[in-house]
Specification:
Number of helices: 17
Largest sheet: 8 strands, parallel, barrel
Number of strands: 10
Strand content: 5-15%
Shape: globular
Length: about 450
C-alpha cells in the first residue's frame, strides 16, 4: 500500500498529541455548544489511555465505543462541509484524526456521498498517515441514483482508492428502509449483494452490514435474511428520544435493538444526538440535565445512554470541532453506564422535549445540494434553534413577540444567505426521497416562509 509522504509513526504522534498540543476549541470560531456549559479546562487533560472498547464477536476487533462519523468534516470557510461551495480543511481533518487516534478512537465511518462526495478522500488522506492496523474504516454502498451493477461496483472500487486501503473493515448497504422495491433494485436485482458476499469471502470486506432508516416491515424483512447472508453488524438510529418515541416513519429503537440482541448481532449507533437536537436542547431541559450532573455536558447524557447497552459496538458522532471530540472522549474514557433510574429520567426528559414543535432534521445533508440553491439544513436548524430558545411566537399578541420576532429574523439572515432562504423553494420535491427522517421538505419551506413573511409584515397570526 502506497503511504502518504507525511506518514508519522504512532510513538511520534502520541508524543506530539498526548500533551494536548493540538488545535484547541478556541481555534474553531462559531461552533455549536454541544450542550457544553461547563469549564472543560477545569476537568484536566483529556485521558489518552482510558477509552472504553467493545469486542466484535465475529472478528475479535477491539472497537472504541466512540466512533468518528466523517460526514461533517470542517471546511476552510468555517463550519462543516455542507454544499459544493465548501472546501474541506484537510489540515484540520488531519489534526482531528490524529487527536482521536492518540486518545483511543479507532473507528471511522464515511460514505461516497458524505461532504458532497469529498469525505472518503479527506478521511483516507488523514488515516493513511497512520499504521493500517491502528484503525477500523467503515464505508458504504451509496448507490442511490444509479444502482446498476457496473456503477455499484465502480463505486465500491473507488472507495478503496480514495480511502487508500486494500480491505474494508466494515461495509454497509447504505440507508435501507425507504421501500422494499428500492432495496431490491439497489441490492438484489442487480446482484450487488451477492457480489459483496463474495468480496467478504475473499477478505476484501471483513464485516458486512447495513444502515437503517424506515419502516418496521422492511427492517424485519431484511433482518430475516440473516440466516442466508449472516449480517455481521447493523447500524440503527438510537438515542433516548427515539427509544420509545420515534417520530415520523422511524421505528422505536427499543424494538430495533431488541431484535438485534436476540440474534447476537453487533449494533452500530448513528444519531445518538439526533443531529445535535439532544445537545442543543431548550434551556429548561439543559438545566434539568445539568442539575443531575453539573460537571457533565448535556451531550454526555445521550452518549452514556447508548453506551449503556451491551450489544452496542460503537456510537458515531460527527465531530466537526475539537471541543466536541474532547467532550465525547471524556464521556467514554471511561464510560460510566447509566442505571435504570437514570434511563427513566432520560425517557421523561424525552417526553418533555416532544412538547416543542421542532422539525426532525438531523442535519445529515442527504437533501443537499438543492438544485435551486436552498440551504435546507440551515433553514430547518435555525427554525429548531428558535423553538428551543423560546423565540417562536404562537401569536403576535405574545408577551415576548417583539424580542422573538427580532431574534428569528436577525438570526435567520445571519444563519442563511438571502439567496438560499426558504422563499426560493419551488416545490420540486427532489429532496424528499433523500431524507431519512421522511420530512416533507417543500411543505416545511412553505410554512417557514409564510411565518417569516408574517413576521416581516407585522401581521396578526
Amino acid at each position: 500500500m502506497k503511504k502518504n509522504k507525511n506518514t508519522i509513526d504512532r510513538r511520534e504522534f502520541i508524543k506530539r498529541l498526548g500533551a494536548g498540543s493540538l488545535l484547541t476549541a478556541a481555534a474553531f470560531t462559531g461552533c455549536k455548544s454541544n450542550g457544553l456549559k461547563i469549564d472543560s479546562s477545569a476537568l484536566g487533560e483529556v485521558p489518552t489511555d482510558k477509552m472504553t472498547y467493545r469486542t466484535n464477536p465475529n472478528t475479535g476487533d477491539k472497537v472504541s465505543i466512540l466512533g468518528y462519523g466523517c460526514m461533517r468534516w470542517p471546511t476552510i470557510e468555517g463550519g462543516s462541509a455542507r454544499d459544493q461551495r465548501s472546501k474541506i480543511d484537510q489540515e484540520s481533518v488531519n489534526e482531528l484524526v490524529d487527536y482521536a487516534l492518540a486518545h483511543g478512537v479507532n473507528y471511522f465511518d464515511t460514505s461516497p456521498v458524505y461532504c458532497q462526495g469529498m469525505s472518503e478522500e479527506a478521511t483516507g488522506i488523514a488515516l493513511s498517515r497512520h499504521p493500517r492496523e491502528s484503525y477500523f474504516i467503515a464505508t458504504k454502498m451509496s448507490n442511490f441514483s444509479n444502482p446498476s451493477f457496473e456503477n455499484s461496483v465502480a463505486m465500491y472500487k473507488r472507495s478503496f482508492e480514495k480511502l487508500q486501503v486494500d480491505y474494508m473493515d466494515y461495509y454497509l448497504l447504505h440507508n435501507i428502509g425507504a421501500s422494499l422495491d428500492a432495496f431490491n433494485r439497489r441490492f438484489i436485482d442487480n446482484g450487488i449483494l451477492d457480489f459483496l458476499i463474495e468480496e467478504r469471502k475473499k477478505g476484501k470486506i471483513r464485516n458486512l452490514g447495513w444502515s437503517f432508516h424506515g419502516e418496521k416491515e422492511i427492517f424485519d424483512h431484511i433482518l430475516s435474511l440473516h440466516e442466508k447472508v449472516h449480517w455481521d453488524f447493523i447500524q440503527i438510529q438510537m438515542n433516548y428520544s427515539d427509544w420509545r418515541s420515534a417520530r415520523g416513519n422511524n421505528v422505536n429503537a427499543e424494538y430495533l435493538y431488541a431484535e438485534l440482541e436476540k440474534r447476537n448481532i453487533p449494533v452500530v449507533i448513528m444519531e445518538p444526538l439526533l443531529g445535535g437536537r439532544l445537545s442543543n436542547v431548550p434551556n429548561h431541559i439543559a438545566a434539568r440535565l445539568q442539575e443531575q450532573a453539573p460537571e457533565r455536558s448535556v451531550a454526555s447524557w445521550a452518549f452514556r445512554f447508548v453506551g449503556s447497552y451491551p450489544m452496542v459496538l460503537t456510537a458515531l458522532s460527527g465531530m466537526t470541532y475539537m471541543e466536541h471530540l474532547e467532550d465525547n472522549i471524556r464521556t467514554y474514557a471511561p464510560l460510566e453506564e447509566l442505571n435504570d433510574e437514570q434511563k427513566e429520567f432520560l425517557f421523561e426528559t424525552a417526553e418533555l422535549m416532544l412538547q416543542y414543535p421542532t422539525i426532525p432534521c438531523n442535519d445529515c445533508k442527504y437533501c443537499m445540494p438543492c438544485p435551486y440553491g436552498l440551504d435546507i439544513p440551515g433553514i430547518l436548524l435555525h427554525y429548531n434553534k428558535c423553538v428551543n430558545e423560546g423565540n417562536l411566537s404562537k401569536s403576535s399578541r405574545d408577551e415576548n413577540y417583539r424580542k422573538a420576532r427580532r431574534a428569528f429574523l436577525v438570526g435567520y439572515d445571519r444563519a442563511v444567505e438571502k439567496e438560499r432562504q426558504a422563499d426560493h423553494c419551488v416545490g420540486c420535491k427532489q429532496c424528499n426521497p433523500h431524507c431519512p427522517q421522511r420530512i416533507d421538505i417543500p411543505r416545511e419551506m412553505r410554512r417557514i416562509d409564510k411565518y417569516i413573511e408574517d413576521l416581516k409584515q407585522g401581521r396578526e397570526f
